[in-house]
Structures are given as structure tokens and as C-alpha cells.
Amino acid sequence: TLFIGMAPVSLAIAVYGGVVVGNGAGTPFMLAGLIYFIGCFGVTVVFNVPMNEALAGMDASSEAALDYWSGTYLPRWTFWNTVRTFAPSVSAALLLFGLLWMAQTQAQTV
Question: What is the pTM of this model?
Fold first, then answer.
């Protein structure tokens, strides 16, 4: 639920940054939402799930499965999982930066 639910939430954050917050502080919001959506949800759907399904469909004791595991699956899955690890970190940092920027901007106008 959390993983699937964060996809529309991340897009909503991107739209909020672009439409409601606008120029300036809205840019990090938009980037945060898009980076999370593409880097977490997109990578999982486009890369990791198909590789998992391909591996699951193989006979575990076959030579083809061993070759796929060591030559294709492990290096590619690890790379894309690393992307999935860094994407939410970058997204969180951008979101925090946008919130601080927005708060500072609002404090200066008061």
C-alpha cells in the first residue's frame, strides 16, 4: 500500500510545487516528486519486476538460470536497486530544501 500509494502522492507533490508554490521554492518540490516517482516507482516497474519475473520463471537448477543470475540479474538488479536507494534520499533532501525555502520566503513577507 505504501509503495503503490507513494506514486500518486509524489506526482501530487510535483504538481503542488509547480501550480501552488510556483517559481522559486516550487522547483525543488517538482523535482522531489518527479525524482521519487521515476527513481522508485518507475525503476521498480520497468526494471526490477521484469527481472524478478524472468528469474522466477526459470528452473533454479538449470545452467541457464545460473548464467542469468550471475551474468545479468545480479549486476543489473543491484544497479537499479542502488538507484532506488538514492532516489528517495535525493527526493527527501529536495523536499526539505523546498520547505525551508518556502518558509523563509513566507517569513520575509510577514
Answer: 0.86
